[in-house]
Every structure is written in structure tokens, then in C-alpha cells.
Write a structure and sequence with these properties.
With 697 residues, the protein is an alpha/beta fold. It has five domains: 2-172, Immunoglobulins (Immunoglobulin-like, Sandwich), CATH 2.60.40.10; 181-194 and 216-238 and 279-478, 7-stranded beta/alpha barrel (Alpha-Beta Barrel), CATH 3.20.110.20; 494-558; 561-664, Subtilisin-like superfamily (Immunoglobulin-like); 665-696, no CATH class. It is 34% helix and 27% strand. The strands form six sheets. Strands 8, 9, 12, 13, 14, 15, 16, 17, 18 and 19 form a ten-stranded mixed beta sheet that branches. Strand 13 (333-337), helix 12 and strand 14 (359-361) form a beta-alpha-beta unit. Helix 7 (215-224) runs parallel beside helix 9 (268-284) and helix 13 (397-403) runs antiparallel to helix 14 (410-427). The longest helix has 20 residues, at 494-513. The protein is elongated, with a radius of gyration of 42 Å. The model is unreliable at 1-46 (pLDDT under 50).
Length: 697
């Protein structure tokens, strides 16, 4: 055999290929191979409809001591019985560029090197699914002494007629790589908010996603499967963690008919949530796992900036960090950020840099790729962010496209995506400082079984070196600076923003009044921060549920503060006006008491007093002066403390003041007038001289 290989080296390429093919056929004699199939005939016939092939297993990579092992399913979707079955395995010349590789996934892009037939026994009946397996040594490829990616196809024939073709790459390594390709792979575990402020879950996807075999269940299982820890970036959205914690202790949920179901602890979705929480704790404590930052409510950062709410980002970060620490015992890295839904613009990028973000993980195509690049574009780029710069990690767009290209065949999708990464490494296999990135985004468009298939390939591929995003950003220097393209992301509805700001103002006033109601204030703050989440950009009606809950809770608390209606009598011009307030909230309330009256009553020391009402009935007095007698109303208001025009009314009542005091000036004038009138009237009783006597005088 060695002498035969030595003679091959002196032949022309065509002669060598022919001889290698003959050698390969001889080496395959131990397999169940019958009479040779006519290659020319098979290639001229087009596949008949009704037969589907699905890859079940393929060697991660092959080499001199690693034979090819491939198995697949064939399903007869037609109504005819298929007999005289055979499999034809074809290995083509290496794909030496990314474009040639991608072409080889659709058609014969290079010349054929090897072609092997394998006769199969039995038939494939209508509706039947059979599994076929081929195991083959690769001595002819070893003789080429070349590490390369070989396009390969497996064809099913019946009576020498081509029925179906399955194309897949084969990575062949002569020796283990000395300089692997750095790979950052990010897994985003996310779920939109699907519960109401009262904690009742709405019909949604989370219960099916965390169930055995669901999307999140399979993602976490794939990450947890490797025996040895592998460097990986994991983004756990706050909304997913929050909902898992709520569900694990038992929860209530609405079904499609609107009926409320109760799921007890340790059953159904509650058991699934507890199981995933335990798996996350274990995963996030493994060496090499980097937990990227998350924000309370999972807000859309551009929507926050557009609404003028980006000032909340610090509170959103700190609150999420505390919840992660409480639930999982870990705190997300503030230096590595994954914007929810990969939505990022320049204002939000500047804001992230301001809170310490150094690396940003985004989806493919967030930044444009320069056309006509000879080699694969670098996975990092430096972006200006305020007075500093942030490194953006850019996933390979071609890999992302291949991962989602074959929905019905997750194993095949994983292998063709891995082949794309192999072509990147084969471009410059001995050059250090090269890398690539892959992301499974918030709602990945791939079948769940793909997660474990791809994870297994990454773990078993020696030409890849998984690294965290922070390591990739440090080890691979971006070739140049870039800028974020202008993109318009959907923001909050204008009316929704106004309602949100009004609720924030009302909670601020409530906090001024009931400063010691810490648990109530914290819960309402959580409701408002939750209302800033990206879920409510598209569904503001759900966000209004949280805003209405804030108003309802505050107004309900205010109803426990009452002012007594009373009738007060003032027997003198000055006196003290008593105001009785009852506080049944259970905690002290600091308020402004304000009395409103017309000019008939004046307030000696002012009509406003700031008081702290304890949890009881308390009476406060106001010095007043009555300007007249009579009955007149007084409005008593209990207001939150603050500047005029910004205070909320907690309670209000009407009092009646009756004044019986006389005005001194009015009394003197009245008495004087009476005396004058009496004197004037009494003149008629005085003696008067007769007119005649007057004349004589």
C-alpha cells in the first residue's frame, strides 16, 4: 500500500485521481458493496419527488485515524414501493473559499475525487422511514496529505434511479491544529413578560418553552451537556429569570378560555421552572461561563433614550443585579452588554459606555460589512461612544444564515454552519489573532434540537477555541474604528409615555408622603420599571396594566386617610379651628393640611400646616379670626408635601363654621345710630312756647 502511494506522487493530477478512486474502491471492499452503480446514469437522472433525507449523525471531523461515520433517515413519501436500494457516497475536491463552499451546499462546485456505491438490502415502502449508515476509512484523502474541507454528498438510488441527495461538508485534518480559531458564542435565554401586575400569567409561550423538549429547556441542556467546561457567553434576560422565580413557587395562569388555573409547587410548569433555575445556577457557576449584563424589565435601549427615560438605566442595572444575585448567586458582568433584541443606536451606546460597558454583543448585520473582502471580516469593531470607545462583537452573518436555513434537518444545519467556520479557519490556518462569533439571539429562528447538535460540534472541533466575548475583544484588535449606522427603532407610544411619566410623578409624591412604606414603594417602583420593558413597545395595553396598578394602589392607600366633617362654632372674633384627621394606612403619613375659605374668615398664622399623621386619629388646630357672624363653609384638604402645583390631594372634606361674635365697630355704629334716632324721636315730647307769647315778647 505504501509503495502504491509513493507511485501516486509522480503521476499527473488526473491519473492520480483515477488511481485514488480505484484504491478507494478496493479499500471499501469490506463494506456491503455489490455491483457498481452507473455513475453517468445516476447523474443524468433528477431526483424523483416523494423521498426525504434527514441527517442523523456525522463525524465531527475526520483524519488518518478517524474514519467517516454518517447515518441518515430516508422517508418514502410517495405511494410506490422502492426496491433495489443503493447509497452512493461522493467526495469532491476541497472548497478553498467561502463562496465555493456555499455553492457546494447546493450543487457540485468542485470536481469529484471519490465515488463509492453501497448496496442496501430490503425495500422502502410507502410512508416508511429507514435509517442507513455508512462507515468508511479515508486512506485516499490521507495520501493527499492536506487538511481541507471536502464537500460531500450522499445519494439514495432505487433501481439505479436517483431518489434524493444530501449534501454536507467533511472536515479532514492531517494533524491537530496548533493555532485554532477563537470563537465567541453567545446564547441569549429570553422570554417576554407574560404576567399581569397581580401575578396571574397570561396565555403565552413560556410554559411550553421551559417544558421538557421546549426551546429554553433544550438550550440550557445543550449548554450544560459538555463534560469539560467550555468558555461561553450567556445572556439571561431579567424577564425570564423573574418569571421562573415566580413560577417555581407555584402560580396561577389563565387558559385560552379565560379560566384561571392553579399550578402548585412541584407540579407542571412550577416543576419545570425550578428545574431550569437549578440548571442555570450550575451552569453560571462553571469556569468559563460569562454572564452578560441584563436590565430590569429588559427595556429597548433606543426606546428608553427616545422617551427621555435613559436616566433610569442605572436603577435598571442595579435592580437586575440584586435579583440575579438573590436567585442565582451570580451578578452579570457590567463590562459586557447584550442589548435586548440587539437594538442599539448612538445615544443608547453612549449611555452604556457611561455605566461601564466595554464590550457590546449584537446580532449579525447590525454593522455593515465592507464588500469585496479577501478574507472573512474580523469579528470585532471599535465604536465611538461619548469620550471613549466600545468594542462590538459581530457574529458571522453566513453562519447565522446557515443555522436557520435547514429547519427540518437540525443536524445538517449544524454541520453546514460548522463547515462555514472551518472555511474561515482554513483561509489562514497558521495566523494568530483571528476569530469568529456566533449568537443564538433572543428568539432564535432554529429548531430546538439544533442547539445540542451545534454545541457538540463546537466542543469536538479542534480548529476552534471557544473564548468569552471579553477575551475576544482583548485578543483580537479591531482593524479600524466604525460607526453605528442610523437606524430607526420603534419607540413607546406618545400617550403611553405621558401615562408612564404621570405614574412616576404620582409615585414620587406618594414617596414624599409615606416615606416609611418601603415595601409598598419598592413594589410600585418595580411595576413602573417593568412598564419600561421592551415587551410594551409593541403591546402598550399590557404596560397600562402595570401603570393602572400603581394608580390603583396609591389611590386605595389614600382612601385610608379621612378628614372628619364637623360644625364648629366661634363665640368670639378669634379662636382655634380644630381639624380631625384619621390615618388607617398602618404607617405615618407626612402631609400638608390646607384650609380654604372666603373673606369672612382669616387665618392668623396661615392656612397650611405640614404635619405627620400617625396611625390614629389626630386633631390639629388653626388660629382664625372671624370677620363677621353667620355660617360659612371651609374646605379642608390633605395634600402630599411639596411645591404648590405639584401636590396630589389625599383627602378632602367640608367644614361648617358658625360665628356668633359681633363686630365692635359695627356694634358702636349701630348703638350710635339707635341713640340718634331715639333722641330725634324724643324731641316731640319737649315743652314748646305758644306763638302769641312769642309775638308779645
Amino acid at each position: 500500500m505504501d509503495r502504491y502511494y509513493n507511485r501516486l506522487s509522480g503521476m499527473s493530477r488526473v491519473s492520480r485521481m483515477r488511481s485514488v478512486s480505484l484504491l478507494f474502491l478496493g479499500a471499501a471492499a469490506w463494506l456491503s458493496v455489490g455491483s457498481s452503480t452507473s455513475t453517468a446514469r445516476a447523474q443524468t437522472n433528477s431526483p424523483l419527488p416523494g423521498v426525504g433525507l434527514k441527517l442523523l449523525h456525522q463525524s465531527v471531523w475526520n483524519g488518518p485515524k478517524r474514519p467517516l461515520d454518517i447515518s441518515f433517515q430516508a422517508t418514502n413519501l410517495s405511494t410506490a414501493s422502492l426496491g433495489d436500494l443503493s447509497i452512493e457516497l461522493t467526495v469532491e475536491a476541497p472548497a478553498r473559499s467561502r463562496s465555493v463552499y456555499q455553492l457546494s451546499l447546493r450543487t457540485d462546485a468542485t470536481v469529484q475525487l471519490l465515488e463509492l456505491p453501497f448496496l442496501q438490502t430490503g425495500t422502502l415502502e410507502p410512508g416508511e422511514t429507514r435509517t442507513f449508515r455508512v462507515t468508511q476509512g479515508l486512506a485516499p484523502l490521507t495520501a493527499r496529505n492536506e487538511s481541507a474541507i471536502y464537500p460531500m454528498k450522499v445519494q439514495l438510488l432505487s433501481n439505479d434511479t436517483l431518489m434524493a441527495t444530501l449534501r454536507t461538508p467533511m472536515v479532514f485534518l492531517i494533524e491537530r491544529p496548533q493555532l485554532p480559531l477563537d470563537l465567541t458564542w453567545t446564547w441569549v435565554l429570553s422570554e417576554p413578560i407574560q404576567y399581569q401586575p397581580n401575578g396571574v400569567f397570561l396565555p403565552g409561550s413560556i410554559q411550553s418553552d421551559i417544558a421538557p423538549g421546549g426551546r429554553l429547556d433544550q438550550m440550557i441542556a445543550a449548554l450544560s451537556a459538555p463534560a469539560s467546561p467550555t468558555a461561553v457567553d450567556v445572556t439571561v434576560s431579567w424577564s425570564l429569570l423573574d418569571q421562573l422565580v415566580r413560577m417555581a413557587s407555584g402560580y396561577r395562569a389563565l387558559d385560552a378560555s379565560g379560566a384561571t388555573l392553579t399550578v402548585g409547587r412541584g407540579t407542571g410548569g412550577a416543576d419545570d421552572a425550578a428545574r431550569l433555575l437549578a440548571a442555570l445556577r450550575s451552569l453560571l457557576h462553571r469556569p468559563g461561563t460569562e454572564l452578560t449584563s441584563s436590565w430590569f424589565g429588559d427595556p429597548s435601549l433606543p426606546a428608553l433614550a427616545k422617551a427621555g427615560l435613559f436616566g433610569d438605566i442605572t436603577a435598571l442595572t442595579d435592580r437586575a443585579a440584586r435579583q440575579f444575585n438573590d436567585a442565582l448567586g451570580v451578578i452579570p458582568s457590567p463590562a459586557v452588554a447584550r442589548p435586548p433584541l440587539s437594538q442599539i443606536d448612538q445615544p443608547s451606546l453612549d449611555g452604556l459606555a457611561g455605566i461601564g460597558a466595554q464590550t457590546v454583543l449584537v446580532d449579525p448585520n447590525v454593522l455593515p460589512t465592507a464588500p469585496g473582502l479577501k478574507y472573512n471580516p474580523p469579528p470585532t469593531v471599535r465604536l465611538a461612544a461619548g469620550k471613549t470607545a466600545v468594542t462590538a462583537v459581530l457574529p458571522d452573518a453566513a453562519v447565522a444564515g446557515l443555522l436557520s436555513s435547514t429547519q427540518a434537518d437540525p443536524q445538517l444545519a449544524a454541520h453546514v454552519a460548522m463547515g462555514q467556520l472551518a472555511t474561515v479557519w482554513f483561509e489562514l490556518p497558521g495566523v494568530p489573532g483571528r476569530g469568529a462569533a456566533v449568537v443564538f439571539p433572543d428568539r432564535p429562528n432554529v429548531p430546538p434540537p439544533l442547539f445540542s447538535a451545534f454545541a457538540g460540534l463546537v466542543e469536538g472541533s479542534p480548529w476552534l477555541r471557544p473564548v468569552t466575548a471579553s477575551t475576544l475583544a482583548t485578543d483580537i484588535a479591531p482593524p479600524s474604528r466604525g460607526t453605528l449606522p442610523r437606524r430607526s427603532y420603534r419607540g413607546f407610544d406618545g400617550e403611553y409615555v405621558q401615562s408612564l411619566l404621570a405614574a412616576k410623578t404620582k409615585l414620587g409624591q406618594f414617596g414624599n408622603a409615606a416615606a416609611t412604606a418601603h415595601s409598598v414603594i419598592a413594589r410600585l417602583q418595580d411595576d413602573l420599571l417593568t412598564a419600561e420593558g421592551s415587551t410594551f413597545v409593541a403591546e402598550p395595553h399590557l404596560g397600562h396594566l402595570f401603570l393602572d396598578a400603581v394608580h390603583r394602589t396609591i389611590d386605595g392607600t389614600y382612601k385610608h386617610v379621612e378628614v372628619s366633617n364637623s360644625l364648629v362654632t366661634l363665640s368670639s372674633r378669634t379662636g382655634l379651628l380644630p381639624v380631625t384627621v384619621r390615618n388607617d394606612t398602618g404607617y405615618p403619613v407626612t402631609v400638608d393640611l390646607r384650609l380654604l375659605s372666603d373673606r369672612r374668615l382669616s387665618f392668623v398664622t396661615g392656612n397650611i400646616q405640614e404635619v405627620t399623621i400617625g396611625p390614629r386619629t389626630t386633631t390639629y388646630t388653626f388660629p382664625v379670626r372671624a370677620q363677621t357672624t353667620g355660617r360659612f363653609p371651609i374646605t379642608v384638604q390633605v395634600l402630599t408635601p411639596g411645591e404648590p402645583g405639584t401636590r396630589d390631594t389625599i383627602a378632602q372634606a367640608e367644614m361648617i363654621v358658625r360665628s356668633t361674635a359681633y363686630n365692635r365697630v359695627a356694634l358702636i355704629v349701630t348703638i350710635g345710630a339707635a341713640v340718634f334716632l331715639m333722641a330725634w324721636w324724643g324731641r316731640r315730647f319737649l315743652p314748646r312756647k305758644r306763638r302769641d307769647d312769642t309775638r308779645r315778647a
